[in-house]
């Protein structure tokens, strides 16, 4: 109790000192829980405040670099390299290898000459390569491919030069550029258990051609045949898992090939069926009797 009383006396003396000092200096001291009333808010016009400031206009507008200069020549890289030399700046590495426009022009003229004479514009391979188990399949193009591109599925041992020579020697197709895509092997689950294995990798090559190639449309008769076959297969699958009265429905798949023959259900009166069953039981009992068996054995001399 004495310690609490001393603490209250110290706090009262401290507050008196702060109030006296604040009155003397003319500056109000805010308390810990100070909250300004709305009447003391600063007077600001709503039109002068911009809540959503634009996100443009604050960047510095710089002039375009020399690499973005407009050129109307067949070999723009050489022209851009000359601009860097005139400005006294270092030539970027992407323009260093193509500064010689004369060599590029000579290669272009050589290609046009071989194209006109229908000869290969590249050096044909002399070493024969045998891939007896290899397959080269023409695939349908993706959405990113143009009509001047063709995609092939090739063995992993084949490279660009092999495919280029193969297309020229077999089909006479001129490959201007070839790119390779090696797809990663995917994990596949087994249908019977939870084991998994990797599928083999697929190697695909995209070839640029001088002339366009468009896949022919699939005939409508072939599409109708596949759709009909799929419908028949689904109907047979539904029949195999049918239950109840669904088993008695007629099966019209494949033009009625599996349709069961309709058997005539003859009408038999109830009383006649009852009397017939009764007489059949009497006849069976008489046939299986010991007297009848002994007569048959005597007749057959058994």
TrEMBL record:
Please report a single Pfam family linked to this protein.
Ribosomal_L23
Q: Which positions carry the signal peptide feature in this UniProt record? A: none
Q: Name one GO cellular component term.
A: mitochondrial large ribosomal subunit
A GO BP term, please? mitochondrial translation
Instruction: Provide the family line.
Output: Belongs to the universal ribosomal protein uL23 family.
Instruction: Name the source organism.
Output: Candida oxycetoniae
MF terms per GO, please? structural constituent of ribosome
What's the protein name?
Large ribosomal subunit protein uL23m
Where does the source fall among the domains of life?
Eukaryota
Keywords noted in UniProt: Ribonucleoprotein, Ribosomal protein
UniProt cross-references to SUPFAM superfamilies, sorted A to Z? Ribosomal proteins S24e, L23 and L15e
